[in-house]
TrEMBL record:
This is CDP-alcohol phosphatidyltransferase family protein. InterPro entries: CDP-OH_P_trans, CDP-OH_PTrfase_TM_dom, CDP_ALCOHOL_P_TRANSF_CS. PROSITE patterns: CDP_ALCOHOL_P_TRANSF. Pfam families: CDP-OH_P_transf. One of its GO terms (cellular component) is membrane.
Amino acid sequence: MSKLPKENQFLDLSDYGRPVAKAIANSLKNTSLTPIHVTVGFIISGLLAIICILNHQYWATAFFLILKSILDAADGELARVKNTPSYTGRYLDSVSDIILNLLILITIWHITNGSLLYTLLAFFGLQLQGTLYNYYYVILRNKFDGDTTSRVFENETPIAMSGEKQRNVNILFGIYSVLYGAFDRIIYRLDRRAVESENLPNWFMTVVSTFGLGFQLLIIGLMLVLGFEQYIIPFFIAYSVFIFVFIGLRRFINR
């Protein structure tokens, strides 16, 4: 099941694992496994990718990064096919993502003997890229009656859905706010009028989807396999320039 109505669906370059994710979700539909179990699976896959980086096993790294992206999509798909959406799963997913992102970049810094400052700048840029993509995507999903588990403005603790505990939602939302709050505020201040957008064309969303986490992990995996590990940190710093390019393009489209 898509997060958007058919007419508003776009080619999401970061979501290449969706077909396999749907197959996994359908195979688990009538089992006792929950979306949380699948989220734990992608956490394990991300950690295995980090171990492979440390051991310079880059083909295996690429495999586990791609598997992580597939499972990252599968947990949401399973929640939809089982009709068990939850804020617990939504925030656990996001918190796990940002921690794994930092660990992956720190690991790349370790094996390349690069600059820790540049690594942190790359992490900052990578997170801003993903935040911009998610910002536009959630606006689109809310505007066209798609999946609304994610909110445009994550500034209040949501009420727990059926089947989950409010205490778990409170804890995970608090962690989410600490880890993502600054990135959300920066992107909102850079393009606060995006929520009023009358038009976010499919082609535009496809271009911006290069900021999606799945695509970012694919780039990291490919660069490692090709022997370009020294350039991963500089790449994500430089690619952050396109944040301003995409915001300018969005404003032009809705002028």
